[in-house]
Amino acid sequence: MILIVDVLNKNRFLPILDDMFRLRARVFQDRMGWDVAVTNGLEKDEFDALDPAYVIALDDDYRVIGCARLLQTTGPHMLSDVFHAILDGEPPLRSATMWESTRFCVDRETLAGRRGKHTVARTTTELMCGILEYAQASGISDIITVIDPVMDRILHRSDNAPYDYVGRTAEMGKVRALAALIDTGQERIDRVRAFAGVEGDIFATQEEVANAIAPPTGLPGDAFLREYCHQQIENAASLRERNAAIALQKALSGLGSPARNFDT
Amino acid sequence: MKSRIQLVDLTALSGPRADFLGHLHGLCRTIGVDYASYAATNPVSGKLHAFTTYPTAWKDHYMDQNLHLVDPTLRIAARSIAPVDWRRLEQDSSFQDVFGAARDFDLPSTGLTVPVRGPMGDVGLFSVTSRMSAQDWRWLKGSMMGQLQTAAVHLHDTVMTSDALTRTLRYPHLSTREREVLQWVAAGKSQQDIGDILSISSRTVEVHLRSAREKLCTLTTAQAVGRAVSLGLVQPG
User: Fold this and answer.
1) Residues of chain B contacting A92 with CB distance shorter than 8 Å
2) Do B208 and A94 touch (CB under 8 A)?
3) How far is residue B37's CA from residue B59's CA, in Å, rounded to a whole number?
4) How far apart are CA B213 and CA B173, in angstroms?
5) Of these four, A85, B104, B116, B138, which has the most CB atoms within 10 Å of its CB?
6) Backbone phi, psi, residue A170, to 5°
7) What ipTM was predicted for this assembly?
8) Which residues from chain B sit within 8 angstroms of residue A7, using beta carbons?
9) Domain that holds residue A234
10) Does residue B130 contact residue B33 with C-beta atoms inside 8 Å?
11) Mutant choice from A93, A205, A207 vs B, greatest count of B C-beta within 10 A
12) Chain B: residue nearest A6 by CA?
């Protein structure tokens, strides 16, 4: 499922955002060797401070298995401020109906060997559909995305080939990067969905995810256990640990999930 | 601590700015909404510039009470990249502070705000409101989003360039490709022809044209060519 986290709802999803920044550190620093800044295991840059929208793929246990970041091209974005080598000294495109997508990644380690709904290929496609459908619903007709040749091949393989490229392929440190154009037309969305057999609504409601990651309201009667659970939840190093700690607290307090309250 | 940003009603000023309001009324008619407003912080003067088709009574109340300092359709929506449906803001206590009063003025609280981020850290906010049913609103939203985005950025760029200092900062920086495409348009070539000449897809030609139109603060390609010619960026065809 796909969750959109933006400035309006991010306070409800801070553990999910941290998990996402940890995934980005593993992918972009550890696996791909990009020159990115990682602090306390979290990969963040100056564009994360500009309130972007995040498209986040979650598995059935609400763990982050993929993500991408969206920014408007009318304001500061990576192609204009960081990747200008690609543009060869040319000013960037600027359009109200074009967003920039960056930091696209999928958790291959976790998904390797999984079958069914959460494979690498399926998650990649679901994330692409999430970006395209969210952009389309926001009146955006095109996405510009800075990618490496590997991602370009993945796009082609997923029946989501860019319709064109802007500028040139530039050397960015150890990797080569290029800027691709992708439309958000229904035809493309249908094609990408059909490729991986994605059907129905892929978006999770905010309430569903917020309730799933929230600690239960009831607490164990014993003061020591209460404190222990609190510590476990607070000190969790990942969303997985946090979920486990919450599950423990739920079990100890003899309570099920809190009442659900879906968007109306 | 809240900064005491001064709210300036652009329609109260004389001169060509009065056209902004006519433009907003026109947009209301074409899109099919009841009211439209635009507000932007000028990064140079620090003032919040605004104009609206709301009735004068509400405008006076809004300015008297300094509601712009708490209004979440400005304060919160300004930080979003996507259009914000006001339903997402209803939870915010400040929404009731502003729109509880709007009901007394018989104004709708169904609406959305389209934020525009400018190159200088400036933010423009274009809002529309409507009395229609929730179902009609959902349908209208789906059909008007692209149009709203384009209208919002056009308004914002026009307002930003209406000030001498920001105009200098925002001299249109067209890429070689954008100039090439405009030059071929000036020479009377179709989008398809231009794609063939430059060996790019016609959709890419469209993307460059759209970008050039926005950088030149124009809505149509003909206007963009005219302005590019007058700025000496393109030779007359």
Assistant:
1) 175
2) no
3) 11
4) 11
5) B116
6) -115, 150
7) 0.76
8) 76, 79-80
9) 215-264
10) yes
11) A93
12) B80
Query: CATH code at A133?
Result: 3.40.630.30
Answer yes or no: is pLDDT of A230 > 60: yes
Q: Which residue is associated with the tokens 């920001």?
A: B166
Per the CB < 8 A criterion, the answer to whether A111 and A118 are in contact is yes
Residues A207 and A222 in one domain: no
* Alpha carbon of residue A76 to chain centroid: 20
- Whether residue A229 is predicted with pLDDT greater than 70 in this model: the reply is yes
Tokens of A185: 């037309």
| Residues of chain B above pLDDT 90, percent | 41
Closest CA in chain B for residue A144? B207
Q: Where in chain B is the domain with CATH 1.10.10.10?
A: 173-230
Percent of chain B with pLDDT over 70: 88
Q: Provide CATH code, domain B173-230.
A: 1.10.10.10
Residues paired with residue B8 on neighbouring β-strands, in sequence order: B49
**Lateral strand order in the sheet of A2-5:** A2-5, A53-58, A64-72, A98-106, A142-147, A175-183, A164-172
Separation between Cα atoms, residue A26 and residue A64, nearest integer Å: 13
- How many other CB atoms are there within 10 angstroms of residue A98's CB atom? 25
Query: Taking the CB of residue B196, how many other CB atoms lie within 10 A of it?
Result: 14
Contacts of A156 (CB under 8 A, 6+ apart): none
Q: Count CB-CB contacts under 10 A for residue A42.
A: 17
Whether A125 and A228 share a structural domain: no
Residue among B142, B175, B215 minimizing CB distance to A90: B175
Residue A30 tokens, joined: 């550890």
Residues A208 and A219 in one domain: no
CATH of domain B10-166: 3.30.450.80
Cβ pair A153, A121 in contact under 8 A: no
Residue A120 CB neighbours (<10 A):
19
